[in-house]
Amino acid sequence: MRESKKARAERVDAILARLDAEYGTEYRCYLDHETPWQLLIAVILSAQCTDARVNIVTKELFKKYRSLEDFAAAELSELEQDIHSTGFYHMKAKNIISCCKDLVEKHGGTVPRELSELTALAGVGRKTANVIRGNVYDDPSIVVDTHVKRISKKLGLTKADDPEKVEYELMEVLPKDHWILWNIHIITLGRTICTARNPKCSQCFLRELCPSAGGMKG
């Protein structure tokens, strides 16, 4: 079934209304942190790792390394052991040390706001940069993780596989005031109802609006 631009806009509005009603409109971050630089490190650690595991690791990590300077001066082998359970620990440790050195030496200890400056830091791609921009600076940004890519495709809001293309396509169909919320809501949906291996379509409050659930008949 081909969907007109108007019909899609109306369907997106209905999807967002249901997500807001189900999950609320409060911004929340699943990674524990007290400062912007702690969030940045936590997001770097979260690659190919669960937020729950990262929170376990950072609870002790941020007690041991209390400042950017501490991380910048860390011994690579020691930091590797400290973050070992998050996986890919060699590259993550190397990136964290390099990133923190740049933050201290080039940015005066402040996590930058601009996308170009963020992505110039070691270990920081668009996804990580958009997490920072959204959670630290409240700048409208769409974070494309595995949940967002998978469920946005199921909802027929993107056909792309490349995360950056998904991000731009979602920016075209979602209103700016829901760019940050989209990630928050879709992560929750993806962890509870629209799981990757066994989606519970019959229980989903979006099923009538989802092509993949058979809720949209021509």
TrEMBL record:
Catalytic activity: 2'-deoxyribonucleotide-(2'-deoxyribose 5'-phosphate)-2'-deoxyribonucleotide-DNA = a 3'-end 2'-deoxyribonucleotide-(2,3-dehydro-2,3-deoxyribose 5'-phosphate)-DNA + a 5'-end 5'-phospho-2'-deoxyribonucleoside-DNA + H(+)
Main EC class the enzyme belongs to: lyase
The entry's keywords: 4Fe-4S, DNA damage, DNA repair, DNA-binding, Endonuclease, Glycosidase, Hydrolase, Iron, Iron-sulfur, Lyase, Metal-binding, Nuclease
UniProt cofactor(s): [4Fe-4S] cluster
PROSITE patterns in the record: ENDONUCLEASE_III_1 (PS00764)
One example GO MF annotation: endonuclease activity
Record note on cofactor: Binds 1 [4Fe-4S] cluster.
Alphabetized Pfam families for the sequence: EndIII_4Fe-2S (PF10576), HhH-GPD (PF00730)
Enzyme Commission code(s) on record: 4.2.99.18
Domain HhH-GPD, residue spans: 45-192
Keyword Lyase tagged: yes
Binding site for [4Fe-4S] cluster: 194, 201, 204, 210
UniProt keyword Iron present: yes
UniProt xrefs under CDD domains: ENDO3c
Cited SMART domains: ENDO3c (SM00478), FES (SM00525)
Family: Belongs to the Nth/MutY family.
PANTHER family in UniProt: A/G-SPECIFIC ADENINE GLYCOSYLASE/ENDONUCLEASE III, ENDONUCLEASE III
Purpose of the protein: DNA repair enzyme that has both DNA N-glycosylase activity and AP-lyase activity. The DNA N-glycosylase activity releases various damaged pyrimidines from DNA by cleaving the N-glycosidic bond, leaving an AP (apurinic/apyrimidinic) site. The AP-lyase activity cleaves the phosphodiester bond 3' to the AP site by a beta-elimination, leaving a 3'-terminal unsaturated sugar and a product with a terminal 5'-phosphate.
Protein name, UniProt field: Endonuclease III
The organism of origin for this protein: Enterocloster hominis
Lineage: Bacteria, Bacillati, Bacillota, Clostridia, Lachnospirales
